[in-house]
From TrEMBL:
Protein name: FAD-dependent oxidoreductase
Pfam families named among the record's database cross-references: FAD_oxidored
Length: 536
């Protein structure tokens, strides 16, 4: 198969890349391994982690269209109360982690709708349930990628003028021989105050396998997980003697142990939820933290229960990483992470202390229908950290940390292709490190971070862009991934149309200015507004 642009991975970055390239007239082949497109928002079931000003600025127009489309589905198809229907910034789950907590299947439908006109016109061809297994190169160019079915279907080899690696873990980088880094870089390399003296390539952030619950009458206790005895007794060093399966965990910002509460269907006022993590981390009551459906926003009696999305410290899997190991090893480790998630559920159903002095919540019910999976867990593991390209520009802690940059703000880039904002938020890692969760400043995405130093026609379109282990902590979130993918897709189509190559566009001011004008015309913001006051 031949195409103009091959986008491997239909997560948020991949979909944004495909839409941008097709919108500029390119022919695109888009591929996805899992049953749902949408990556961390859908198959990984993670509600969007966004900055406090997302309702006003700081995301691309296409990303805003995705958010508007999700709200539109709830307004048109769900029996909202009149007050909820009139809520301009409708938060369907009224979760504290995000201003737009929602069920993952709704986002799948909206993303499919966004792709629909381009698929109908033949500009985007979506290859489903395939993963990349090999690639060919000619010097510094990628010439083809071979994709193998994960469902015993036929494979396919795709040749393209430009290839965008939008996979969740940078899978094309080793296949194409593109230079990359994993884990912690050394302070000698990056100059980062939080980096270790020596590089730690196997020290990678925890991954998680999320799941959704409701709480209804009856006993819905699952079978005792095979690894329950291990996980029930496991006490990570960062937990200071406490067990991982508990309501107690370190505060990511202070590292002090804190006991959370857990009250299913507490009868709170969902309209009073102020999902702004710069004011309140929101994890006091874990039921409300990532709630994705609030029954009290709907007409009385329509739902028996809220829906609670479990993505908590207790399901962070940091025994080992899954990068650059044989497939059977990575599959086994993800299977163990799934055992951890099931063990947490079983502990909640059978042993968790309740406020009334009892133990266990047998009414907690796993929802396979909500996850789109047979076992009720998310279809895919949530990978917080990917392989990262050795990039033309690498964003370091010194570019975005508020402790370093202060009121001068993050480094400004002449080649900015977008903006983002989130705390530098690193979960415990496979090297035994605890949280790093410190303030950053509103930052920009440099074009050089999407470009490998050597490979000329491969672009980063996900968490594999030019960040470090540390700055990955603020560049890995939903709107930044989307923005990076959109910029990469637009760049590929721009180069096809103009005959220039990506590195040339990045290096030559007049070519860069033409490309940036096209980006801004499609609703990509390159700078943060002047005169705003930004909480950290």
């Amino acid at each position: 198969m031949q195409t103009d642009v091959l986008v491997v991975g239909a997560g948020l970055g991949g979909i944004a890349a495909a839409l941008a390239a097709a919108g500029r007239g390119a022919r695109v082949v888009l591929t996805e391994e899992h049953p749902w497109i949408g990556g961390q928002l859908t198959s990984q079931a993670v509600p969007p982690d966004e900055h406090p000003w997302v309702e006003r600025f700081g995301v691309t127009a296409r990303y805003r269209s995705l958010r508007d489309g999700i709200r539109d589905v709830y307004r048109r198809r769900h029996p909202l109360t009149s007050t909820a229907h009139a809520w301009p910034a409708l938060n369907p789950g009224a979760g504290w982690v995000s201003k737009l907590c929602h069920e993952p299947r709704v986002a799948v439908g909206v993303l499919e709708e966004m792709l629909a006109p381009y698929r109908s016109a033949g500009r985007i061809r979506l290859l489903e349930l395939v993963r990349p297994t090999s690639a060919t190169t000619d010097g510094d160019r990628v010439t083809s990628v071979t994709l193998t079915s994960v469902a015993d279907g036929p494979g396919v080899t795709v040749s393209a003028a430009y290839t965008i690696d939008a996979t969740e873990t940078g899978e094309l980088l080793p296949l194409t021989g593109t230079e990359y880094v994993t884990g912690f870089e050394s302070s000698a390399e990056t100059g980062e105050p939080s980096a270790p003296e020596k590089a730690q390539p196997d020290n990678v952030q925890a991954l998680s396998v999320c799941f959704a619950l409701d709480h209804v009458d009856g006993d819905h206790t699952i079978d005792r997980p095979a690894r329950y005895d291990f996980w029930r007794s496991y006490a990570p060093p960062a937990w200071q003697g406490e067990r991982l399966l508990s309501w107690t965990a370190p505060n990511p910002r202070t590292l002090d142990l804190e006991e959370r509460t857990f009250t299913p269907n507490p009868g709170d006022d969902p309209l009073a939820v102020d999902a702004d993590q710069s004011k309140n981390a929101g994890d006091g009551n874990l039921w409300l933290f990532r709630r994705i459906a609030a029954r009290d926003l709907l007409e009385p009696g329509f739902r028996d229960s809220d829906l609670c999305l479990v993505n908590w410290p207790s399901i962070d899997y940091f025994l080992d990483h899954v990068l650059d190991v044989p497939r059977e090893v990575s599959d086994a480790r993800i299977a163990d992470a799934r055992q951890l998630s099931l063990s947490m559920l079983y502990w909640m159903q059978t042993e968790a202390p309740r406020p009334d002095g009892g133990t266990g919540y047998p009414g907690l019910r796993l929802r396979p229908d909500v996850m789109g999976s047979a076992d009720g867990l998310a279809q895919a593991a949530y990978h917080r950290e990917s392989r990262r390209i050795r990039a033309v520009t690498t964003v370091t802690e010194n570019d975005v940390s508020h402790a370093v940059r202060g009121e001068s703000g993050a480094t400004r880039y002449d080649d900015s292709v977008g903006v983002g904002m989130y705390r530098i938020d690193l979960h415990p890692s496979t090297g035994g490190d605890t949280y790093i969760d410190v303030p950053s400043t509103p930052f920009e995405i440099p074009l050089g971070a999407l470009l490998p130093r050597r490979t000329t026609n491969l672009l980063a379109g996900n968490k594999n862009l030019g960040t470090t282990h540390i700055t990955n902590g603020c560049y890995r979130l939903h709107p930044v991934e989307w923005n990076a993918g959109e910029a990469a897709g637009h760049l590929a189509a721009h180069c096809l149309a103009t005959g220039h190559v990506p590195h040339e566009v990045q290096e030559k001011p007049e070519l860069l200015a033409d490309y940036q004008r096209e980006l801004t015309a499609t609703g990509v913001e390159l700078r943060w507004p002047e005169g705003e006051t930004y909480p950290y």
